Amino acid sequence: MSAPINPSLKDLPKVSIDLKSQLEGFNPDAMKKAETAIKNVLPSAEDVAAEKTQQTLIAGIEAFDATKLKHTETQEKNPLPDKMAIEQEKDKQQFISGIENFDPAKLKHAQTMEKNPLPTKETIDAKKIDD
């Protein structure tokens, strides 16, 4: 059952006489002035534009059709070294460790023989006098 559109007087709720007299005698000029504090600030135009851009971006991502993508082959720009390069690196490390652990006591003594000796001071002085 629904309520009638135009209720009759008997269907209206009963209001006490005291409340009725107070409502009829209400004077809005007797109210105190009060400042209204806005607690829910409306967003600025920049905020609305930024949110709209973000929603458009998200909608574009959600509606993206992956079937339009083309297949591509991945090319490695920094490939791992092959077996030969690894072996060469090991040989270099052994060579360096051989140098670091070198024992000079194992060297044989050698006699140095000058094949092109420098001239003595007397020979140089004699040439200066001759020139």
UniProtKB/TrEMBL annotation:
Gene Ontology MF annotations: actin monomer binding
Bias kind Basic and acidic residues: ranges: 122-131
Coiled coil: none
GO cellular component: cytoskeleton; cytosol
Source domain of life: Eukaryota
Location within or outside the cell: Cytoplasm, Cytoskeleton
Parts of the chain that traverse the membrane: none
GO BP annotations, alphabetical order: actin filament organization
Span list, region Disordered: 109-131
InterPro entries membership: Beta-thymosin, Beta-thymosin_sf
Keyword presence, Electron transport: no
Keyword Thylakoid applies: no
Keyword entries, A-Z: Cytoplasm, Cytoskeleton
Similarity section: Belongs to the thymosin beta family.
Name of the protein in its database record: Thymosin beta
